[in-house]
């Protein structure tokens, strides 16, 4: 009598079992799941409305989900590798980085690394809710 555990499945049945095991993982591969550990690249949830932000700009909104007062900064008028403080008494809670360069946002208005800070890549990063109130930023050379 054959041992049931060593019996081979027909090729089509084996393929079906393999597909059932792999398809759920493949269907969710690449789906946004929130900010990756270590920062950057956060994408708005599917169906969320992104705030308007033109190419080559860093856009900051005073409230989550790209709402509230907007500030827009572009490379032509922003010093690279320099700390840019937001106007006194203002902060941002959502952002879009379309500069093509990495941008670090800071909880501190002086770009101090004693508070929270996070770097976002410049390839179209949309962050509907920052993990802290942004009070300053730096646009990096690359």
The general outline is globular
Give the CATH level 1 class of the domain at 57-139: Mainly Beta
The proportion of residues forming helix, as a percent range, comes to: 10-25%
Low-pLDDT stretches = 1-42
By helix and strand content, what is the structural category? alpha+beta
Q: What number is the mean pLDDT? A: 76
Order of helices and strands: HEEEEEEEE
Q: What fraction of the residues are assigned to beta strands by DSSP?
A: 25-35%
Radius of gyration, Cα only, in angstroms? 22 Å
What order do the strands of the largest sheet run in, or round the barrel if closed?
A: 2-1-4-7
What is the total tally of β strands? 8
Which terms summarize this structure?
four-stranded antiparallel β-sheet, Gamma-B Crystallin, domain 1, 1 helix, disordered N terminus
Could you explain how this protein is built, in words?
By secondary structure, this protein is of the alpha+beta class. Helix content is 13%, strand content 25%. The strands form 2 sheets. Strands 2-1-4-7 form a 4-stranded antiparallel beta sheet, with no helix packed on it. A 4-stranded antiparallel beta sheet has the order 3-8-5-6, with no helix packed on it. It is globular, with a radius of gyration of 22 Å. Residues 1-42 have low confidence and may be disordered.
